[in-house]
Amino acid sequence: MPKLLLLDIDGTLLDSQKKLPASAKEALQQARLNGHDLAIATGRGPFMIKEILKELEINTYITFNGQYISHNGKTVHKQALDVNMLKKIFEFAEQRDHPFVFMNEEKMISSIDYHPDIDESIKSLKIPHPEVEKDFHLNNEVYQALVFCGKDEEQQYHDTFKEVDFVRWHRVSCDVTPKGGTKASGIKNLIKATGHSIEDTIAFGDGLNDLQMMDVARFSVAMENGHEETKKRASYVTDHVDNDGLAKAFKHLNLI
């Protein structure tokens, strides 16, 4: 039975050097030849994954943790953050000197000219510090935002803004997404378009933003390099991404 393989990018498809292992590329190509469908499921935005989509010839993706979904080149779901809510969170962050980054499907924009926390976390994605436009969120749809603060400063956001979710993805940064907007809700919206059922889905991931996806998919695989909570919740834990973990998982599951 053909499966829909839902692939996280950072730490799952891409290794610790942000490179695509040859074994992973070969495994994906073979899985496709064996009749399985491939989809990206990431916290990144569409503009950040163009190269990997092209290299792997994948044209179906869940981005912004479920907020922007495309299938065969057509947008099948999008949900922007409420502008008034975003304005309040931004003002709250500004009072605490926590910078903000806004993202739509085409770009990311910073609220501040330069900040070391933005630089550190965005550089970890191998992309440059974003351009500045303080009022970007007032004139554009924003599907995901990033607030930059340490883990010890995060709880105040959860306590004050219960209408949105804050999910930590980096030492100094949290994703800001609509409440319940996760890769899991993304999968449910995607399968409406692809014609698959939940029974056909296998999720591959490593981070905290993969937890709900792993819970909803029929089967889930965590990378050995993943977060401890992610590994606990997965159906199966494969080897480290740097040690051909993805290809090994595909073999274990008889996808190739």
From TrEMBL:
Do the record's keywords include Transport? no
Q: Which PROSITE patterns match?
A: COF_2 (PS01229)
User: What is this protein identified as?
Assistant: Hydrolase Cof
Which CDD domains does the annotation name?
HAD_HPP
Name one cellular component (GO) term.
cytosol
Q: Which InterPro entries match?
A: Cof (IPR000150), HAD-like_sf (IPR036412), HAD-SF_hydro_IIB (IPR006379), HAD_sf (IPR023214)
The organism that produces this protein has a lineage beginning with: Bacteria, Bacillati, Bacillota, Bacilli, Bacillales
Record-linked SUPFAM superfamilies: HAD-like (SSF56784)
The record's listing under PANTHER family reads: PHOSPHATASE YKRA-RELATED, PHOSPHOSERINE PHOSPHATASE
